């Protein structure tokens, strides 16, 4: 008598596999069981690597994981775009294998960790100043004007300080609605680091950090760079900041920013590369590249770091994590350069590969 056998196998990172087979003998039943065991064994062989943090580099990590997993089906990379502060916190709590942050961890944070953390810049990008105005005119802004907008001192788009930067542009009398991040954010760190370098008033009253105290009653909040972009796109008269890829994806106009030598420069891979080329990068890779010198440098640019423990608890798992990072730092840069990021120069790649060579298992 034929017997219908229903086997349901849950596979990590994949949909459940359902096998409906008809067995008319013990031999057939044994063969079905062997096939099911083989599928289950293959599923269990896949290593899940969990990461969390920066929204700034989420577009790059998304493309990396797709390309890497296609070539390495035994590795499943899961990344949660929750903000840089969340990535740092989850790494300290050891709930992820790697964190990602657009702000390097401070000494006091590293002292809280149960082991030594190494920080590796994996992308460099520009923070675009997005806006929503009738007719989408191309605007020019400088750091002092931008600081005064977010301090609440410039409140209308036809303010003389904006007009003098944009001769010939018809500016509306719309009120300005600044949009900022609501959660701990590395993009906020880059943005506030830049404003602190430009405006003494901003440096003294607001300062820089992944989470800052915004002036009372200032504008709207958005979660993640995608949240800020969404608020800007739907709010007339708004202005916001976010990684360039989000502005391009949402087709939101963004300003040319006045750099340290007085040139107005648009965020782009080339202008971020120009800024990165001037950065002084120490052995621990903690550095800032805002307001960099150079005629072609975009001034609101920064790196994003991957954070991992130097001693990995699980040898096989740790080796696969490091192999992925080695690939991201080298081959992955060819992908990230198509997403408005500046590729890491070979000299930085080699220094990072050497640091990854110090990881213990």
| Distance between the amino and carboxyl termini | 55 Å
> Could you estimate the helical fraction of the residues in percent?
25-40%
**Rounded average pLDDT:** 89
**Biggest beta sheet summary:** 8 strands, mixed
Order of helical and strand elements: EEHEHEHEHEEHHEHHEHEHEEHEHHH
Uncertain runs with pLDDT below 50, 5 residues or more?
A: 1-43
Shape: elongated
Plain-language structure description:
- The chain is of the alpha/beta class and 361 residues long.
- 37% of the residues lie in helices and 21% in strands.
- It has helices at 26-44, 58-71, 84-92, 107-110, 143-150, 160-163, 186-198, 200-205, 224-234, 244-250, 269-277, 315-329, 332-336, 346-356, and strands at 3-9, 17-23, 47-53, 75-81, 98-101, 117-131, 140-141, 177-181, 220-222, 238-243, 256-258, 264-265, 301-309.
- The strands form three sheets. The chain has an eight-stranded mixed beta sheet with strand order 4-3-5-13-6-10-8-9. The protein has a three-stranded mixed beta sheet with strand order 7-11-12.
- A hairpin with a 7-residue loop joins strand 1 and strand 2.
- It is elongated, with a radius of gyration of 24 Å.
- 43% of the residues are buried.
- Residues 1-43 have low confidence and may be disordered.
Quickly list its features.
alpha/beta, 14 helices, 8-stranded mixed β-sheet, 3-stranded mixed β-sheet
Short description:
With 361 residues, the protein is α/β, with parallel strands linked by helices.
Describe the protein's topology:
Elements: E1 3-9, E2 17-23, H1 26-44, E3 47-53, H2 58-71, E4 75-81, H3 84-92, E5 98-101, H4 107-110, E6 117-131, E7 140-141, H5 143-150, H6 160-163, E8 177-181, H7 186-198, H8 200-205, E9 220-222, H9 224-234, E10 238-243, H10 244-250, E11 256-258, E12 264-265, H11 269-277, E13 301-309, H12 315-329, H13 332-336, H14 346-356
Parallel strand pairs: 3-4, 3-5, 7-11, 8-9, 8-10
Antiparallel strand pairs: 1-2, 5-13, 6-10, 6-13, 11-12
